[in-house]
Amino acid sequence: MQSINIVWLKRDLRLTDHQPLQHALEQDLPVILLYVFEPLLLNDPHYSERHWRFVSHSLVDMNQQLAPYGGKVSILRGEILSCFKAIQSLYSIANIYSHQEIGLSCTYQRDKQVAHWTQAHNIPWIESPQGAVIRGAKNRKEWDKHWDRIMRAPIAHLDLNANWLTLEHLKDYTLTLPKHWLKKAKGQQTGGTTLAWKTLDDFFQRRGKEYYRSISSPSASRYACTRLSPYLAWGNISLRELYQQLLGHWQVKGFRRSLVALSSRLHWHCHFIQKFESESAMEYRCVNQAYDALLSQSCLSDRDKLNAWKQGQTGIPLIDACMRCLHHTGYINFRMRAMLVSFLTHHMNMDWREGVTHLAQLFLDFEPGIHYPQFQMQAGVTGTNTIRIYNPTKQAQEHDSEGVFIKQWLPELKHVPTPLLFEPWKMTQMEAVMYQIELDSCYLSPIIDLATRAKEARDRLWSWRKLDQVKQESQRILQRHVRLDDHN
Ligand SMILES: Cc1cc2nc3c(=O)[nH]c(=O)nc-3n(C[C@H](O)[C@H](O)[C@H](O)COP(=O)(O)OP(=O)(O)OC[C@H]3O[C@@H](n4cnc5c(N)ncnc54)[C@H](O)[C@@H]3O)c2cc1C
């Protein structure tokens, strides 16, 4: 039987700065580049078609780069163990190489099964770290130094002249990418390393100087932020590649303030994923476990209101504009994401778990390790972060002062002038007729009263903060998750 090496691709869909691929290419054996669409994830509520479309584009891009070398990614559909078993019936698997996956509990369970199977069959499964995330870290001692070391390490340039092997004859598993995954989605970013680098170049050529002052605006951020999040989440570009480009532009006139802000965020990227790695149960429960009982006693449950939030029909203009924009484009900036969660959990007083998979499905850049810690932080259930209740009216006045973003996504309000646009429920019946608002519109009677609900949320959240059980849990969290280098 022919001996082969497998590179199992997951959220690392690129051909550069790729340690598993590098390991495989260093050996004198045929290499199979494998991507498997697993029903485990295809059916998972965190994912939606937009993610598989992005992955499909990424694979097509990889295949275009591999073509001159006679290589091709083998694309299968099936549970990973069945696929490995099918490959094993045809070849002797010498090694499986992959990146460590800091994923959902379903992929953790799947990885345990893979580890069991590979051990039972004496197949070494060699996993490389994902960015600067340390598997099994007990605390954050020296973590920032580690981040720096990893991000400044040389990038290996891989020689793709290799003995590639494909699995097209594995008929029961081979997947021809469906047409609807290959089609570009209007308004959404398209996957692939080529576009990742184009986006990055464009940031340094044109957009980046505005980054630091545009980051909070729902419209301007779409232009001035890097927009690399889906490319990082699906691994079309590595964080190290991005960071080294940042360092290369450090001295470029006009960029410094933007690059200082961006550099912090690249640290946060791994910092949050590290939190999730160290405490993955936060997929199900509050980081600060004392909040679980508090939420179950106090949170409201109202399907209609939850659906109004999900569909952008709450009657609060900026909330609805953000949600509808997400449905259409898969992207909004950090502040607007935080505001959507704040509105759901604070103003609507709903459990964060009611909305967490909905936003995951909509975010093209869904990354479990950032999404869960951020979601809980904005929901105010960590006990360690400052509580922020974003006022959507104030956010609109400050960051969409002309109402451009709101009018783009809520055409029904296009005739309403500012400042009434930010609080349309204050208009008189005559104004409603004049601005062509239907009299049963949610903008004349939103699902909640903002001021009353904000006050209730403030009282509730601050009284919880004072509870002994919350404080005790907060101490444990600080010891585990706070980066310690600064205090040495
Ligand atoms: C509730 C909530 C959920 C989120 N879920 C995700 C998610 O699933 N995937 C995701 O990539 N980001 C998530 N974020 C973080 C942030 O909003 C996005 O990373 C950012 O808006 C992406 O746009 P950009 O690439 O243009 O960012 P830029 O500002 O250009 O930043 C560059 C990169 O730095 C990282 N980054 C930026 N801000 C943060 C942050 N606050 N925390 C951690 N890393 C950051 C991202 O990888 C980002 O691509 C979430 C934020 C909130 C409040």
UniProtKB/TrEMBL annotation:
Binds 1 FAD per subunit. Its cofactor is FAD; (6R)-5,10-methylene-5,6,7,8-tetrahydrofolate. The keyword Flavoprotein applies. FAD binds at residue 211. One of its GO terms (molecular function) is deoxyribodipyrimidine photo-lyase activity. GO terms for biological process: nucleobase-containing compound metabolic process; response to light stimulus; response to stress. Residues 3-133 form the Photolyase/cryptochrome alpha/beta domain. Keywords: Chromophore, FAD, Flavoprotein, Lyase. It comes from the Bacteria. Pfam families: DNA_photolyase, FAD_binding_7. Belongs to the DNA photolyase class-1 family. Belongs to the DNA photolyase family. This is Deoxyribodipyrimidine photolyase. It comes from Vibrio sinaloensis DSM 21326.
